[in-house]
Hints:
Rossmann fold, Sig_transdc_resp-reg_receiver, phosphorelay response regulator activity, 14 strands, protein-glutamine glutaminase activity, 2 domains, 5-stranded parallel beta sheet, CheB_C, 36% helix, single chain, phosphoprotein
Amino acid sequence: MALSPVPQTSQVPGRLTRVMIVDDSAVIRGMIGRWLTEAGGFDIVATASNGRMAVDAAERSKPEIILLDIEMPEVDGLAALPLILKAHPASKVIVISTLTQRNAEISLKCLSLGAVDYLAKPESARAAGAANDFRRDLVEKLRALSETKVRQPRAYTAPAPTVVSSTPLASARPGTTKPQCLLIGSSTGGPRAVERVLSDMRPVLANIPVLIVQHMPAMFTAVFAEHLHTLLSVPAREARDGDAVVPGTILVAPGGRHMGVVSSGGKATIRLNDGPPENFCRPAVDVLFREAAAVYGASALAVVLTGMGSDGTPGARFLTKAGATVIAQDEATSIVWGMPGSIVKAGFAHEVLPLESIGRSLKGLITGSSK
Length: 371
C-alpha cells in the first residue's frame, strides 16, 4: 500500500509519543530511531535486540507504541508478544517482518494475540525505493496510532444504533432493498475486526457474497483469505480476475491490485486492475464501492471498519446515491477511527455501530428480520 509523503514535523509542543524498537539488528534499530527522530513527535524510550529483553524494557519504560520484529534470537516476536502485553497492556504493538508467507502467517497470528498492526520490512537486497516506502508507512502508522486513545478490553454494552440522518445523496431509504452483496473495507486493526464481524454473521454467510478490501501487502492477503476459510468453514480466497461473485463465497482483494466488480451477461464478476493508487491505496476501498454501486445499486450493503486515512469515503458517495446501505464502525471500538470516521463526518453512514453490534445488524438486514 502506498501512502502519502509524511511531513517532517507535526509535533505537538511538549507531547512526544513514547516508542520502543525491538529488532535483533543494531543497524535497523538505529535507522528506525533516526527516522522517527527526524520526523518529530516521537521519543525513543527503549530498544531491545530480542524478545526477552523487550519484556523487561516494556515494563520499565512504559512505551505507548512498540515496533516488534518477528525473527529474533532467544525469544522471537511471536513468543514475546503476549508477555509484553502482560507486562504493559497499554502498549500498541506493530509487528514488523520481511515479506514471506511464513512471516505473513506469523504476523496474522500476532494480530490475533493483540498486536494492532503490521509492516512488511524490505529485504536488504531490494532497491532504496522500498526502504523509502517502508519509512513513509512506518511514520504514517505511528502518527495515526499516536492520535488514537488506547483501546482497553472491556465488557461492552452496545448502545442503540446511531442513525446518521444527514445523508443527502441517498435516493432510496436504506434497508428497504434485500442485500445482494456485502462489501467490507478496512485497514489498521482490520483483520481482527473483519474476523469478528463475519464470525457474528456466520449463519447467513451462505446467503450472500462477501467482497473484502483490507489494506495489506500481496503475500498477506492470500494468507488472510486462507485464515478466514479456516476460521469460518466458508469458501474464502484471494480474488482472481473474472471470478464469479456468488453467495456463500468470500473474496479478498489481492495486495497491490484494485478489486472491482462488473456485470456481464446478467452476472457479476470480479475485475482486477493495476491502476494508480486511489487515496494513496492499492487496493482501494473506493474502487470496490464505486463499481459495486454501478452493478448492485440499492442492493449493495457496505461496512467500513477501523483504519487510518479516508479510503472508502468517495466510494460511499456512489453507494448512498444508489440507495445502498453503509454502516461504519464507531470510534470507541476502532483501533484508528480514520476511515469510518471520515464516512460518518461526510454524512454517508446510515448506522454507526460498535464492532460487537455490526455482525448482528448485517444479519438482520440480510435476512430481513429485526436486529
